């Protein structure tokens, strides 16, 4: 952001992190979930969210340390992930859905998403190989569309391989510049870790 305009140095960015709040002991196959009535409550979306302020990245030769930046972001997300705020937001959404209807809950969630600069979701995908019409699926990517953030990141696993998908709003973020910045950041972190 700092390289775009001089005014953007003073602006703040937030990320909306959606988290799964279902408490599951481990991987359960579909057959297991269908056979066992105790696992019926595991079906469906159960999530909460946190808004995380994205720390400022200052490129000063004396003060900039990419590993410190990564550790700071990680500590912030970890601290917020273990807070009761996530479960409370999940309960608020569930109460809105039950007592006011799904439209009110959707408007509430959309309003919160609109106030975030970027969205981040992660999902544990299937560990077994999938097939559609007897054709094996080699890769699986997920992207959420029609959300009000200008920048979206989706992280998903499929057959124990991590997949990362980035999405930008057309005309707001230059995808080529974003790719360059991500590669540059990766190189800076890699060099600092050696």
Topology:
Layout: E1 14-20, H1 30-35, E2 47-53, H2 66-81, H3 84-100, H4 102-114, E3 118-124, E4 131-132, E5 135-136, E6 151-158, E7 161-168, H5 175-193
Parallel strand pairs: 1-3, 3-6
Antiparallel strand pairs: 1-2, 4-5, 6-7
Helix pairs in contact: 3-4
What does this structure look like?
The protein is globular. It has 5 helices and 7 strands, in the order βαβαααβββββα. The protein is α/β, with parallel strands linked by helices and 194 residues long. Strand 6 and strand 7 form a beta hairpin. 37% of the residues lie in helices and 21% in strands. The two termini are 27 Å apart. Strands 2-1-3-6-7 form a 5-stranded mixed β-sheet. Helix 3 crosses helix 4. The chain has helices spanning 30-35, 66-81, 84-100, 102-114, 175-193, and strands at residues 14-20, 47-53, 118-124, 131-132, 135-136, 151-158, 161-168.
């Amino acid at each position: 952001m700092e390289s775009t305009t001089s005014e953007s140095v003073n602006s703040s960015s937030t990320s909306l992190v959606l988290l799964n709040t279902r408490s599951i002991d481990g991987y359960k196959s579909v057959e297991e979930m269908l056979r066992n009535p105790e696992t019926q409550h595991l079906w469906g979306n159960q999530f909460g969210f946190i808004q995380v302020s994205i720390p400022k990245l200052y490129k000063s030769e004396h003060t900039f340390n990419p590993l410190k930046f990564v550790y700071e972001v990680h500590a912030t997300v970890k601290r917020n992930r273990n807070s009761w705020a996530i479960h409370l937001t999940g309960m608020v959404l569930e109460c809105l859905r039950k007592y006011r209807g799904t439209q009110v809950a959707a408007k509430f969630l959309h309003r919160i998403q609109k106030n975030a600069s970027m969205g981040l979701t992660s999902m544990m995908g299937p560990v077994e190989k999938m097939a559609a019409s007897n054709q094996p699926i080699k890769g699986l990517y997920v992207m959420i569309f029609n959300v009000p953030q200008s920048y979206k990141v989706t992280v998903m696993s499929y057959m124990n391989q991590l997949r990362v998908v980035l999405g930008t709003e057309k005309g707001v973020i230059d995808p080529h510049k974003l790719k360059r910045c991500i590669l540059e950041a990766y190189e800076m972190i890699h060099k600092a870790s050696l």
